[in-house]
Amino acid sequence: MFDFILRLYHNKAMLATLKQTAEFVELFRVHGVKQTFKKGDFIIRPGDPPHGVFYIYQGLVKAYDITKYNEENLLIIRKEDELFPLIWAITGQERQVIYQALAPTVTWQIKREKFLEFIESKPDALAPLLDMTLEMYRLHSERILNLEYRTVRERIISFLLTMSQRFGKQTEDGLLIEVPLRHQDIASSVNATRETTSRELSGLERKGLIVNKQSLTLLKDVDALRKHLDQS
Questions:
Q1: Residues with Cβ < 8 Å from 223, sequence gap 6 or more?
Q2: How far apart are CA 116 and CA 139, in angstroms?
Q3: Chain-centroid distance, C-alpha 39
Q4: Which residues contact 141 (CB under 8 A, 6 or more apart)?
Q5: Which domains does the chain have, with CATH numbers?
Q6: What is the pLDDT of residues 56-107, one digit of tens each?
């Protein structure tokens, strides 16, 4: 348990102390229900209200909604040591967001009432919560800034570089984004059609800048991708 808390503490630039973080995690471990999901399992189903606050111990969780054109719109991908649905947990406002496991995932779930009771009774609990809120704000800000690029190719490159910072693993062949991304996921994130996104990804692959294998993206030349953005 303690090594898990150290992982959370050291992997991020955090405002919370180790003790505050440990107490926050302990809330979920002691009072929560441990749940295991297979890849593709719904955690919060379409149309269902949230039935608790979830802490991701292991795995990946995709948050998305459905557009009026009946297409999936990727909002964010949550990873281990993160909490969802964060806005609902704090405000109680429902947003009809669907949460689905992108990989084998383990969570701890607690009732929202227990979560609110904890943060109201322990002011120190606001520090780790603020860390999570700031991270969510940063990710959504980066998505907005991404849309300032004029071409779809630029927006795709920017998106892939951002994802590599969050999910990237350095390999002998390049920087591997260790999260499955469908073309529709990328398209919805860069405000483009799936067809255009597929064409631009193929173009980047022909140039030897990326490789797509089973929904995983390998960035072959990160410097060249960044240079492309700098020249735009």
A1: none
A2: 24
A3: 15
A4: none
A5: 2-145 (2.60.120.10), 152-230 (1.10.10.10)
A6: 999 999 999 998 888 889 999 999 989 999 889 989 887 889 999 999 999 9
